Amino acid sequence: MDAAVRELSYAQAIQEAMAIAMEADENVILMGEDIGVYGGAFQVTGDLVHRFGEDRVMDTPISELGGAGVAVGAALTGLKPIFEFQFSDFATLAMEQIVNQAAKIRYMLGGEVSVPLVMRFPAGSGTGAAAQHSQSLEAWLAHVPGLKVVQPSTPYDVKGLLLAAIADPDPVMIFEHKLLYKMKGPVPEGSYTVPIGKAEIRRQGSHVTIVATAIMVHRALEAAIELAKDGIEAEVIDLRSLRPMDTGTIIESVKKTGKLICVYEGVKTLGIGAEISAAIAESEAFDYLDAPILRLGGAECPIPYNPDLEKTAVPQVDTILAAARSLLAGRL
Amino acid sequence: MTMQVTDGGRAQPTPVPVQADGGSNLPAIYQRLGRDALRDALKKMHLIRLFEEGAEKAYMRGLIHGTMHLSIGQEASAVGTCMPLSDADYITSTHRGHGHCIAKGADVGRMFAEFFGKETGYCHGRGGSMHIADVAKGNLGANGIVGGGIPIAVGAALSAKRRKTTQVVVSFFGDGANNEGAFHEALNMASVWKLPVVFVCENNRYGMSTSTERSTAVANVADRAVAYAMPGVIVDGNDFAAVAQASFDAVDRARRGEGPTLIESKTYRIRGHSRSDRNRYRTKEEIEEWRGRDPIVAFEKELLDLGLLTRDESEAVRAEAEREIEAAINFAAESPAPPLKDLTRFVYSN
Ligand SMILES: Cc1ncc(C[n+]2csc(CCOP(=O)(O)OP(=O)(O)O)c2C)c(N)n1
Ligand SMILES: [Mg+2]
């Protein structure tokens, strides 16, 4: 049972998950722009084209709307496509197929069909790619019933969540933060799944709950180490899944700590933080709060090109530290 | 001999054929443009090449953030296409847009400043290479979205027509963009409404790694013009005269109110798609073959052969471009960065 565990990068873990699924089921195919000999813009598909051939690792023309539609049609009729967007920003070109078609077909047809489709979205800022290549649009898609939306933060989770997504009969959207692709971590060989809709407590603590997504999980953990030096024990929850959202884990944590900070990269307002805050306000954890809920999110502007502005536009370790310290000042 | 400077395409072709110094007949387009404009064009082509090389070096020295898409090898296409345009005319550009920006008259200092993320840059450091624009000169901007500029160009042309100006819009895009829905929808509307827009597909044979053979059902992008009832013109994009001639024809037609044209400018990008390209989808031989068809070398030789340029003048043009680039990089390096407190400036008008 004990599968060998190696260090893999996040990108390698994704590639391995796809290869396992393709070995196991010939109906699994990959589609996307430059995913063949080029290996994908972020080298996630790498050499898979040499292993599985151009019929199963398909370079599409630069046609996001059409390509997404082809993937939906293929999923409806027996294939299991994994569709790679070159950047998550280009989901905007394919919104029609994702939102009006993939998400709704099963419902509109009264459950007669399903759309076993996986879409992968390289997302987030930090690479100097500016406003049209750095967005965090996961909350947009999470707003659509019919879709499942996950945001894995570790190599282990991305492999397990991708395999869970491929096995899932419904469309699953995976947001992969670009800064995570090269990050390494332990990954077991072989097939395993991580459940969709389950948050993970990355660090136990009793003074404040920090719920974070994607790269922010790592920043929150770094901040937690610093906070511990001041005697502040932060509990860090990796949300992992936006839809369905595991509010239960957050509620339990807030009942213990009485304080909540939400950290995510998407624009601060009308996003993930609002949803988490509302879930707490509507739950029994409300009575346990002894400080205002804090949201740390992206600034109210497009992602700027200048590197210092770019860093300022999204939460950094220091942002989290300062917020936690001010929240806890006089309240420990 | 009398020579005229291009004045935005409103000038009529010179009626009497002008003789070159050597006495041979000049190509019609060279008669129309005149010696000064041709030298200016050569200088712009040098500026583009030197700009790209300078940007590449700066990137490797870590002075530039992000990625960039170089247009080395495509200089004749950018400059030739912009010859009939005045500052009042618009262009929309692409992620591979440095050449278009310079061809439309941008100051290379402000361009480098943008690349360095500086407040003095064309976009105040907010946009970078992929969003470079020069609105005063009619460049509505590069675009990070493949095909994103094409419908915008049609909108600008609609506006020009309704405002009863003689403005023309040129929309640059790559071969990859011709498979986006936006391309098809935009060409159709431009034709239905007879708008003053020229679609210039710079077909450099690849959209990233995917060749046109693997991405596009027709042999030539220009073949698609038929579907939208407009002329489809194919030119050798590395031949300055051919590009300029095709552009004048299309721009004249647009100014006369006869509607859009689709020009396919066949060219080649010598560098990889972006900084991360490992060139696995093409051969060294292919790249070398196209290096031998360098549009700047060819244009310079032509001007020398026609007696429109002397060796000394050609040296001087190049030296001038080099000085401009050096000064531009210094200007950019010394310029201030935007203050952090201005992060959300420019999101709304007030
Ligand atoms: C909508 C969209 N899809 C994909 C990309 C990623 N991308 C950027 S440039 C490019 C290739 C474009 O090819 P082409 O239009 O031929 O222009 P070229 O790069 O050859 O100048 C791709 C796939 C993008 N920027 N926008
Ligand atoms: Mg191309």
Q: DSSP strand (E) fraction of chain A?
A: 15-25%
- Oligomer type: heterodimer
CATH architecture of chain B: 3-Layer(aba) Sandwich
CATH level 1 name of the largest domain in chain A: Alpha Beta
CATH superfamily of the largest domain in chain A: Thiamin diphosphate (ThDP)-binding fold, Pyr/PP domains
Structural class of chain B: alpha/beta
CATH class category label of chain B: Alpha Beta
What general outline of chain B do the C-alpha atoms trace? globular
Query: Could you give the order of the helices and strands of chain B?
Result: HHHEHHHEHEEEHEHEHHH
Give the bound compounds: thiamine diphosphate, magnesium ion
The assigned CATH architecture of the largest domain in chain A is 3-Layer(aba) Sandwich
> Helix count of chain A, per DSSP?
12
What do you see in this structure?
The complex is a heterodimer of chains A (332) and B (350). Chain A has 332 residues and is of the alpha/beta class. In chain A, 35% of the residues lie in helices and 20% in strands. Chain A is built from 12 helices and 14 strands. In chain A, strands 3-2-4-5-7-6-12 form a 7-stranded mixed β-sheet, with helices on both faces. Chain A has a 5-stranded mixed β-sheet with strand order 9-11-10-13-14, sandwiched between helices. Chain B is α/β, with parallel strands linked by helices and 350 residues long. Chain B has helices spanning 28-33, 35-60, 75-82, 98-103, 108-115, 149-162, 181-192, 212-215, 240-255, 284-291, 295-305, 311-334; strands at residues 90-92, 169-174, 197-203, 206-207, 210-211, 232-236, 261-266. A 5-stranded parallel β-sheet of chain B has the order 1-2-3-7-6, sandwiched between helices. Chain B has a two-stranded antiparallel ribbon with strand order 4-5. Chain B starts with 27 loop residues before the first helix and ends in a 16-residue tail after the last helix. Mean pLDDT of chain B is 93; it is low at 1-18. The chains are: A alpha/beta (332), B alpha/beta (350). The interface between A and B is large, with 37 and 44 residues. The structure holds thiamine diphosphate (TPP) and magnesium ion (MG).
